């Protein structure tokens, strides 16, 4: 068995008297860089980025980074703000019908490649279903958000489509007094049954 030992050595500087002493300035720079990395990956800060409308407008690349990191972390608390971003596009250079795959140069381009919140919500998985159902209930049928929510539910429950349909059916049963919400949920169930 080979054993490896690592030693942490201080950073030294040499002064005019040729004495070695720790260089605290260099050590501080290193610790500050580490703090920046950790701060950027802080879920609370990433959630603030998702909720900042100014960032969405002025710095979409920062929003994309936050969406991606929260999805990679599978951060369940991000499901609600991510669901609100189902209409946020990676680029506006090419439009597509929401919830539908399209082809470019013979290869399919899926909605999750065009709308980054979809991929993050798929990564979060089943805990995101509740927020996706809310989007379907509250957004107009056929809207980008609604169709992308249906697509995302389908992707999350693709191994067990009945689980996605069951989730929508339960919400539909609770929406018995609200005809509009009920119809939106029925439409979503029909679309899931067709896929």
Shape: globular
Report the β-strand fraction as a percent range. Answer: 5-15%
How many distinct beta strands? 4
Q: N- to C-terminal separation? A: 55 Å
* Largest sheet data: 2 strands, antiparallel
* Poorly predicted spans: 1-39
User: How would you describe the oligomerization state of the chains in this entry?
Assistant: single chain
* Strand-pairing-aware structural class: mainly alpha
**Spatial order of the strands in the main sheet?**
1-2
Radius of gyration: 24 Å
So how many helices? Answer: 11
- Summarize model confidence as the mean pLDDT: 78
Order of SSEs: EEHHHHHEEHHHHHH
* Helicity level: 55-70%
What does this structure look like?
The protein is mainly α. The protein has a domain at 125-195. The chain is built from 11 helices and 4 strands. Strands 1-2 form a two-stranded antiparallel sheet. A two-stranded antiparallel sheet has the order 3-4. Mean pLDDT is 78; it is low at 1-39.
Brief summary of the model shown:
With 195 residues, the chain is mainly α. 61% of the residues lie in helices and 6% in strands.
Secondary structure elements and pairings:
Elements (H helix, E strand, L loop, with lengths): L11 E3 L5 E3 L1 H17 L2 H9 L1 H6 L1 H14 L5 H6 L17 E3 L2 E3 L1 H4 L1 H9 L4 H10 L5 H13 L4 H14 L4 H16 L1
Helix pairs in contact: 2-4, 4-7, 7-9, 8-9, 8-11, 10-11
């Amino acid at each position: 068995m080979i054993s490896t030992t690592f030693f942490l050595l201080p950073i030294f500087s040499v002064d005019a008297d040729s004495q070695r002493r720790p260089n605290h300035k260099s050590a501080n720079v290193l610790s500050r860089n580490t703090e920046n990395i950790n701060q950027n990956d802080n879920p609370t800060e990433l959630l603030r980025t998702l909720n900042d409308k100014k960032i969405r407008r002025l710095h979409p690349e920062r929003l994309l980074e936050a969406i991606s990191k929260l999805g990679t972390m599978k951060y369940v608390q991000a499901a609600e703000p991510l669901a609100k971003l189902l209409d946020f596009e990676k680029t506006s250079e090419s439009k597509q019908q929401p919830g539908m795959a399209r082809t470019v140069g013979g290869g399919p381009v899926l909605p999750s490649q065009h709308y980054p919140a979809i991929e993050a919500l798929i990564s979060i998985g089943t805990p995101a279903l509740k927020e996706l159902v809310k989007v379907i209930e509250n957004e107009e049928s056929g809207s980008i958000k609604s169709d992308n929510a249906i697509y995302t539910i389908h992707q999350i429950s693709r191994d067990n489509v009945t689980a996605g349909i069951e989730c929508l059916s339960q919400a539909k049963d609770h929406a018995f007094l609200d005809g509009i919400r009920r119809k939106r949920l029925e439409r979503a169930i029909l679309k899931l049954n067709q896929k």
